[in-house]
Amino acid sequence: MERPRFTPKMSRCLHQVAEKVEGLGQFVMKTRRTLKGHGNKVLCMDWCKDKRRIVSSSQDGKVIVWDAFTTNKEHAVTMPCTWVMACAYAPSGCAVACGGLDNKCSVYPLSLDKNENLAAKKKSVAMHTNYLSACSFTNSDMQILTSSGDGTCALWDVESGQLLQSFHGHAADVLCLDLAPSETGNTFVSGGCDKKANVWDMRSGQCIQSFETHESDINSVRYYPSGDAFASGSDDATCRLYDLRADREVAIYSKESIIFGVSSVDFSLSGRLLFGGYNDYTINVWDVLKGTRVSILFGHENRVSTLRVSPDGTAFCTGSWDHTLRIWA
Amino acid sequence: MPVINVDDLTDKDKAVMEVNQLKIEVKLERWLTSKCCEEIKDYIQAGVEEDTLVKGISEEKNPFKEKGGCVIC
């Protein structure tokens, strides 16, 4: 039994529908801030809801909270492991979660007192049987969703550390996850080394939809702003858009000249632009409707490993194996 | 709740998982793709005017504008 394979012609559906839409003009986006301080590859970052603070994590075992306006470091924590592959800001802005090769996800409350030792207040929340690849708070500081190299995703209660729900269905490491925008209900999407993107019901633990059109690991998944679709980025050097109600891929973003994997994707506020961070050190900016690349951004001196648009859509941040983070606007 | 590690699953376990999943999904009610694409297009066009990264922003309003130098008079 096999999933249907979609031909490139069918995948252009969104672009066909958008044929008469006006193309986008020239883009002038440049690095506005460079955040230096990590001693090794930056692996993950997340924005605070206040649109100015950022948390980042690195292979050097450090998790840093930055003020992106001033580039000042506000907090720094040293984890007991290297390769902190995942980090996330709590919705309240009062805590951060992180984890990686320690197979755990831990929560650190952020203190206003700069002298306070954050590590002392650390709370271990999630326990997997392999590395933690991604984590995200749900709508509150009370629950965390995690994905792991052990092939599962899980939902945890932060206060008690209790496992609330387990999500099984991937046949290999799960590399990424994203929660549906709160208006659309309790679902999330995950992507894995089995080339599949799965959509899950958080309450039942059931996989409700599955998509398998990528030709390699899916490194990043991100819901489209309305919640009716999601984008993915893969080692097969393409980004794809999947519509949840049509239950299929509706667009593919690729070029023959782009041969390196996509590590991270995110949408602009309206969903018109899709930003992709690539292993060839660049960021490609795609017109979601037309399928064309509208800009290529240079600056990082090694792989772009993580990319997120700010909560109000005024800028986006990238993290790289070159040890830095950059804010682009 | 059973907690698993994919490394412990056999190929047969994975195939059974896949078939069970397909049986669930075959019951999904699907919309016409052309209708869904129209909706995506409409959604974007409704919001694009407010999208700073698409429309651009004046330097004064840009919270990330480059910090100016200081001039001592």
Automatic annotation (TrEMBL), chain A:
The UniProt record lists the keyword Hydrolase: no
Swiss-Prot/TrEMBL WD repeat ranges: 35-76, 125-166, 167-210, 211-252, 262-296, 297-329
Gene3D superfamilies the UniProt entry points to: YVTN repeat-like/Quinoprotein amine dehydrogenase
SUPFAM superfamilies per record: WD40 repeat-like
Oligomeric and partner information: May interact with RGS9; this interaction stabilizes both proteins and increases RGS9 GTPase-activating protein (GAP) activity, hence accelerating the deactivation of D(2) dopamine receptor-mediated signaling.
InterPro entries: G-protein_beta_1-5, WD40/YVTN_repeat-like_dom_sf, WD40_G-protein_beta-like, WD40_PAC1, WD40_repeat_CS, WD40_repeat_dom_sf, WD40_rpt
Keyword annotations of the record: Repeat, Transducer, WD repeat
Lineage, opening ranks: Eukaryota, Metazoa, Chordata, Craniata, Vertebrata
Protein name: Guanine nucleotide binding protein (G protein), beta 5a
Assigned protein family: Belongs to the WD repeat G protein beta family.
Origin species: Amphiprion ocellaris
GO terms of biological process kind: signal transduction
Automatic annotation (TrEMBL), chain B:
Gene Ontology CC terms: heterotrimeric G-protein complex
GO terms under biological process: G protein-coupled receptor signaling pathway
Superkingdom, taxonomy of origin: Eukaryota
Pfam families on file: G-gamma (PF00631)
Stored CDD domains: GGL
Subcellular localization: Cell membrane
Membrane topology, record value: Lipid-anchor
Signal peptide: none
The entry's keywords: Cell membrane, Lipoprotein, Membrane, Methylation, Prenylation, Transducer
Domain annotation G protein gamma: ranges: 5-73
Recorded family membership: Belongs to the G protein gamma family.
Function per UniProt: Guanine nucleotide-binding proteins (G proteins) are involved as a modulator or transducer in various transmembrane signaling systems. The beta and gamma chains are required for the GTPase activity, for replacement of GDP by GTP, and for G protein-effector interaction.
Assembly and oligomerization: G proteins are composed of 3 units; alpha, beta and gamma.
Identification of the protein by name: Guanine nucleotide-binding protein subunit gamma
Originating organism: Stegastes partitus
Taxonomic lineage of the native organism: Eukaryota, Metazoa, Chordata, Craniata, Vertebrata
